[in-house]
Request: fold
Amino acid sequence: MAIPTPHIEAKLGDFAPTVLMPGDPKRAEYIAKNYLTDCKLVNDVRGVKGFTGYYKGKRVSVMASGMGQPSIGIYSYELFAFYGVENIIRVGSCGSFDKDLHARDIIVAMGACTNSNFISQYNLPGTFAPIADFGLVEKAVAECKKIGVNFKVGNILSSDTFYDDANSGMQWAKMGVLGVEMEAAALYATAARLGKKALAVLTVSDSFIYPEENTTSKEREQSFNKMMEIALNIA
Reply:
């Protein structure tokens, strides 16, 4: 496929080797405006803004994925396959199943379970377990320790449903799954298929244990700064 792609209007070379990928386009813009210098808008198809600039002298990009595995599957595939991107770090929010994790704590997602059929496209004779790149996990853990944030490393659930009629969250929790979001499994599978690297660093925005701590949409957009700094320092 030639570039620009159906969903990205950037030119070859417009993206840095590492792209931070929040779900929310407003969070992408927030990161670009508050953390990057010499920042340039490189994509605005469908209002999904992509930016490239510099953080502590290192070239880095940020672009939103939208919500859900089909959406991040499209954007991550096009970035990996056609724009020379080597690493995508998802910086997103999640709901927590874990009693030791409170609002604004961090999950480094080593693995991503899913109830999606996304991985069925690969026609594998079994069940594929999507995992993060260990080198990126290792760096994220070091950054979490450095800044002193409360965090856990482990498995998450990437769900295709936000409003879960079966209310199945705590069934996953009994298997040690720390929390739920909607994108990481597809990102990890796409990276594996294309020989690239991926990681999800997630901030707890909602808790199934402590619902009184749940955050607002504006807080999710603009106040999850520790997660952003962890990802930028990895990049």
